[in-house]
What does this fold into?
Amino acid sequence: MIPVFPQRIANPADPAPDFPWPAGKRCAVFPAFDVDGETAWLQHDAANTDRLVTLSFGGYEERVGVPKILEYLRSVEVKATFFIPGWVVDVHPKMCEAIVRDGHEVGHHGYQHKRPDPAEFADDKEEIDKGLDSLKRVLGVVPVGYRAPSGENYDQLLGYLRERGIVYSSSFRDDIRPYRHKLRDGSKGPVELPVNMSFDDWLYGLSQRYSPRPMFPKEHVRSIWNGELDQTREWGGLVTMVMHPQVTGRPMRIGILRDFLARARGFGDVWVATGKEIAEHYLAHEKAAGL
It folds into this structure.
């Protein structure tokens, strides 16, 4: 059976409309953090519940990673998006309250960081609902953005996310520009702010816990990030980042982010924005175009 993939909704005369960035900007950078905490390790192996050193990788986020990232973002007056599982909100409320207090966007990231699976729709709905409850109950937040734990999604879940008020997703890897999902029934799904996997810090800074791959030095990561930005800027695209405070919140690695954002902003024509801002920009152009 040939799978039916989610598609973009577009003007028939233009199969992939590219709306201009605001104020004459050439491209956009979406600084986003996945605040997985201990859930990343608990989902990898349930036995990690009793492996306290393994869990301490996630605990670093509350102790050091998030506070240092917030301190840096305040110093450069940048607002970012933090995708947070509901479990992390319930277990580390003060950390999450600090993110909200600084004016950053909070997005949905499941409840226990369970990877969505088409065969487990009932469980995935519960993950969505429990995550929404935690964000509202603890933080007073009703999120408009969603990033799928472990980067997976499917048609039925996209439809449910839309029903629960999710305006945009940031999970897919199939473009460098925002687009609108078209579900299998022909209806509109969420707007997608696609991810560039080159900006997933886990690949460079923490994979060695369960992998023989060594950590990447800062020179390598900066070279990759800067090269991707340069070409994306030339193409007029979107750089969507996937950073984790237990990685980028480490002493040397926060310097990589600092250097990258300073270079990006130094061009003068790069729009650094939250997911909500980018999605709203897309929706405004979509409405004006009558799509």
Notes: The mean pLDDT is 91. The longest strand covers residues 188-192. DSSP finds eleven helices and eleven strands in the chain.
